[in-house]
TrEMBL record, chain B:
Plastid found in the keyword field: no
A GO CC term attached to the entry: membrane
GO molecular function terms noted in the UniProt entry: ABC-type transporter activity; ATP binding; ATP hydrolysis activity
Domain of life of the organism encoding this protein: Bacteria
Pfam families: ABC_tran
Protein family according to the UniProt entry: Belongs to the ABC transporter superfamily.
Keywords for the protein's UniProt record, in alphabetical order: ATP-binding, Nucleotide-binding, Transport
Domain called ABC transporter: residue spans: 23-251
Name of the protein this chain belongs to: ABC transporter ATP-binding protein
Organism the protein comes from: Lentzea tibetensis
InterPro entries: AAA+_ATPase, ABC_transporter-like_ATP-bd, ABC_transpr_TagH-like, Bact_Polysacc_Export_ATP-bd, P-loop_NTPase
SUPFAM superfamilies given in the database record: P-loop containing nucleoside triphosphate hydrolases
Entry annotated with the keyword DNA-binding: no
Length: 278, 271
């Protein structure tokens, strides 16, 4: 790990290169990332606000923020399973620590995330007037306090998410290099996770479905037992002025510690084996 | 002190097929119990019980049939493979030139490729920026360095790769066959530079099938056969026993002239 930090210029440069590279021969360049995210978020936001009969002006920012964060998680997990397999050539030909490839991947995803944040900024600017005071998100009984200086929490929140992305990519990468069934399993499972996680719907809906206000706690477990929900909430809540719930932070913190321990154990035991397995 | 030491090292490759890579096999295997060798992953022993000690100033030529383990040995020496049994110790900054297509991006320019390769070899961006001019001059690629790499010929890629590794002052230089694509004039230049490097500080291990290149760059030899070191010693003796003839008998006088900086052959030239 320390060696990989010493190589930071390398993966930093490679991550940039990946982005520049992708658009080298295209006219609009990196804006494509933003545009595709914009259209998807817009379409999903409009569609689901109608389906759930929610107020578009508050629901659209909600979906956008959630979807931008989801795109980051999705990228890190799916590409993470593939990170060593895809870099087979480099691993076999140049003696660099394998963590370089993981950090390059996460750094690239962070840059993508930064591109996508443009969409979020635009959406929030448009709907700012309906977000800057306490509001209700559709049928959710909890009153949202609205945008405030809490928005700065997005930085530590995202930093925490990115730190988690590194261990996820590292651990999944090592395991799926050895067991090649993992990437397809993860790829098919991740779609399910997307729909199970409150991204295009919100946890408040679970109250409405049960028909009472707070009695349907077991249904809330659908969201609460889903680790991805906590990860998203840590970053999303400050972005759109939702109440900051510290239990999300605690859960994500616990996952960070457990995950890093696992990943470091895997790294210690199998680091040298990865070049044999790819 | 630059050195590579390898003790009783073996490199075993597990051969995973769809079955043995699968988790299902692992999970169900416990229940059903192992049946004979079916539960085991077959292994290819690429290197077996290697003992080596290469010291500063050594220029080792690696010979052997295809599949004898030359490339695997080079990767072991580079630290890419850690021995599955035995141990190895590598002291010094390693610069490998194996496959020229790898680690080079065809879409970006020669300059950018120089930068990336340098960073991979442990340089910082600033150090590389200082060296870019030197590399440009050495490779004689000139304005081509602005062009994307896909427009380069094989020989030009070799020049670029050699330019980078020789410019970063490596201590351990590992070359696999394939650098033969450059023309004679450049090879002479590269040879001088490589010799210079090795003389300054460092060692060279070079795998090749071409006698000429071997003798131009190396002085000692190592014959790999079926994953084991078959012979080690003076390059001329090694090549003679490996190929069954004395390579010096087949060199043209010009080649001999070039090689003849080595004192051994002064009386032996010509046919």
């Amino acid at each position: 790990m320390r060696q990989a930090w010493a190589h930071r210029e390398l993966w930093g440069h490679l991550g940039w290169q990946d982005i520049k590279q992708r658009y080298r021969r295209s006219v609009i360049g990196p804006l494509w990332i933003t545009i595709s995210m914009g259209t998807t978020a817009l379409a999903l936001g409009l569609l689901y606000s109608q389906l759930f009969n929610e107020d578009t002006s508050t629901f659209l920012p909600y979906v956008t923020a959630g979807f931008v964060i989801w795109a980051f998680i999705l990228g890190c997990v799916t590409e993470g399973t593939d990170v060593f397999i895809a870099n087979e050539g480099l691993i076999k030909h140049l003696p660099a620590p394998i963590t370089v490839h993981v950090l390059r991947l996460v750094w690239r995803q962070v840059l993508f995330f930064a591109h996508n944040m443009i969409v979020y900024v635009i959406v929030v600017a448009i709907f700012f007037t309906s977000l800057d005071h306490p509001y209700k998100l559709g049928s959710d009984p909890v009153i949202k306090p609205g945008l405030s200086w809490n928005i700065l929490l997005v930085f530590p929140g995202f930093a925490l998410l990115a730190i988690n992305a590194v261990w996820i990519a590292l651990l999944f990468g090592i395991i799926s290099t050895r067991f090649r069934d993992i990437p397809p399993v993860v790829n098919s499972f991740i779609n399910l996770v997307f729909f199970m996680t409150p991204i295009v719907w919100h946890a408040g809906v679970l109250h409405r479905v049960t028909g009472d206000q707070g009695g349907g706690n077991w249904r809330l477990l659908i969201a609460e037992l889903n680790p991805v929900y906590h990860y998203i909430e840590v970053v999303r809540a400050p972005m759109i002025g939702h109440p900051i719930m510290w239990h999300h932070w605690a859960i994500v913190g616990a996952f960070t510690i457990i995950g890093w321990t696992l990943a470091l154990v895997a790294l210690r035991n199998w680091r040298a084996r990865v070049s044999y397995w790819v | 002190m630059v050195s590579i030491d390898v003790w009783n090292a073996s490199v075993d490759f597990p051969i995973f097929d769809a079955k043995s890579r699968s988790l299902k096999k692992l999970a169900l295997g416990k229940v059903g119990g192992k049946i004979g060798s079916e539960g085991r992953v077959p292994i290819i022993e690429a290197l077996h019980d290697i003992n080596l000690s290469i010291k500063e100033g050594d220029r080792v030529g690696l010979v052997g049939h295809n599949g004898a383990g030359k490339s695997t040995l080079l990767r072991l020496l580079a630290g890419i493979y850690e021995p599955t049994r035995g141990s190895s110790r590598i002291v010094g900054k390693v610069a490998p030139v194996f496959d020229l297509g790898v680690g080079m991006d065809p879409e970006i320019s020669g300059y950018e490729n120089i930068m990336i390769r340098g960073l991979f070899l442990g340089m910082t961006r600033k150090e590389m920026e200082k060296r870019v001019d030197d590399i440009a001059e050495f490779t004689e690629l000139g304005d081509y360095l602005q062009m994307p790499l896909r427009t380069y010929s094989t020989g030009m890629r070799v020049r670029l790769a050699l330019g980078v590794v020789t410019s970063i002052d490596p201590e351990i230089l590992l070359l696999d066959e394939g650098i033969g694509a450059v023309d004679a004039a450049f090879l002479g230049k590269a040879r001088d530079r490589l010799k210079d490097l090795v003389a300054r500080s460092g060692l060279l291990v070079f795998a090749s099938h071409s006698d000429e290149f071997l003798f131009e760059l190396c002085d000692t030899g190592l014959w790999m056969d079926e994953g084991q070191v078959k012979m080690q010693g003076d390059l001329r003796e090694i090549v003679t026993s490996y190929k069954g003839y004395d390579p010096y008998e087949r060199f043209t006088p010009e080649t001999l002239d070039r090689i003849s900086q080595a004192p051994v052959l002064s009386g032996n030239g010509g046919e």
